[in-house]
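User: Let's play a game. I give you a shape written as tokens, and you guess the letters that built it. Ready? Here's round one.
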């Protein structure tokens, strides 16, 4: 069923005519104070015959009238799953957050699936181990793992703050509920919490220490980057603790001298 047929089906299911859709859209346009939300009878016919593509305003109106999510209507014209694919393909120099979302539970999505050998679905509900490759898993599995509540970010190609533990170009998952910096004595570098930080004009992943009203961003000992200090909370916000990472398998290009003292600017 193409987009036009789907729109016609949604309207027919409600038992309303194209003229009635036009009248209802007039009400929405009046309430919104913008004629862009109005859909004429002739335009509705064009849409149902797949002779026209609706604007975002028209999709808003149809979503309200037909009682379906606007993303469902948008998905009639573009494949929304490709957004995540393109996000992961963007070779940007900066570290940045990312939001991945899907609504259908029966379709697979691309996700990191090579788990630590000790990972067992029946004994844990958290992805707390390193993952190395991308593959397809059902969305239902992702929901079971409760990672829909997590947030995501990319480590910029020029961000060597946590190298080699976090390679530039890695994809990380962080838990916003764990935004309080922990202190302690850590047995290994894997036990020490890594935090995803938002600065005034950039993002950063690092180990952290709190000293009075200052946050110390601590690089990996083998990293070429220097320690950074920020006034907390005016200059930095702790978005959450990194709980999983999909690491690049190909070595990144060597760090340039200018990369070791500057934090990449936010896009």
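Assistant: Ready! My guess for every position:
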């Amino acid at each position: 069923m193409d987009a036009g047929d789907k729109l016609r089906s949604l309207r027919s299911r409600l038992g309303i005519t194209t003229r009635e859709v036009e009248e209802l859209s007039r009400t929405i346009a009046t309430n919104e104070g913008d004629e862009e939300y109005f859909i004429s009878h002739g335009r509705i016919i064009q849409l149902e015959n797949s002779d026209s593509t609706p604007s975002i305003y028209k999709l808003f109106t149809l979503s309200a009238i037909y009682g379906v999510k606007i993303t469902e209507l948008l998905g009639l014209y573009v494949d929304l799953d490709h957004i995540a694919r393109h996000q992961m393909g963007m070779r940007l120099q900066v570290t940045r957050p990312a939001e991945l979302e899907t609504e259908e539970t029966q379709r697979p999505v691309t996700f990191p699936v090579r788990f630590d050998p000790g990972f067992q679905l029946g004994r844990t509900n958290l992805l707390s181990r390193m993952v190395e490759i991308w593959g397809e898993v059902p969305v239902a599995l992702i929901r079971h793992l409760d990672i829909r509540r997590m947030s995501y970010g990319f480590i910029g190609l020029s961000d060597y703050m946590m190298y080699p533990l976090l390679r530039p170009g890695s994809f990380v998952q962080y838990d916003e509920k764990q935004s309080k910096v922990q202190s302690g004595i850590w047995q290994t570098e894997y036990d020490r919490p890594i935090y995803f930080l938002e600065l005034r004009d950039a993002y950063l992943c690092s180990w952290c220490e709190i000293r009075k009203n200052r946050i110390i961003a601590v690089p990996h000992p083998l990293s070429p980057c220097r320690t950074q200090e920020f006034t907390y909370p005016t200059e930095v916000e702790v978005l959450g603790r990194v709980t999983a990472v999909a690491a690049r398998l190909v070595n990144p290009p060597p760090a340039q001298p200018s990369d070791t003292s500057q934090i990449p600017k936010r896009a």
